[in-house]
Design goal:
Blueprint (H helix, E strand, L loop, with lengths): L2 H9 L4 H30 L2 H4 L5 H20 L4 H17 L5
């Protein structure tokens, strides 16, 4: 893990204890995430400004699939190079689409 990643984790208060809690709750969280994301994308679909980020419902469901994979990495609690690559890819996709972090 790179120093900047360690610093970011420290800033967010993510330590070994938090990582353990994430791992222990992974099955529960991933069990409810699909329905939460369905509701999220239904909400996005109701507003032209946000709906425009997606070509169609299949495109939204692809984003949902990618989110579930990314959340799986977060819930592994490892925050290793694989996680960094995933979060970097998420940022690149959002940047390409013109989404800004809030």
């Amino acid at each position: 893990m790179s120093v900047p990643t360690q610093q970011r984790l420290a800033f967010h208060g993510i330590d070994a204890n938090v990582s353990a809690v994430l791992r222990s709750h992974k099955p529960l969280i991933l069990g409810v995430m699909p329905s939460i994301l369905d509701a999220f994308y239904d909400h996005i679909d109701r507003f032209p400004e946000t709906k425009a980020f997606f070509r169609n419902r299949d495109h939204m469901m692809h984003a949902k699939k990618m989110q579930l994979l990314h959340w799986g990495l977060i819930l592994d609690g490892k925050f290793d190079d694989h996680y960094v690559a995933s979060v970097t890819k998420v940022g690149e996709v959002h940047n390409k689409r013109g989404l800004e972090p809030i």
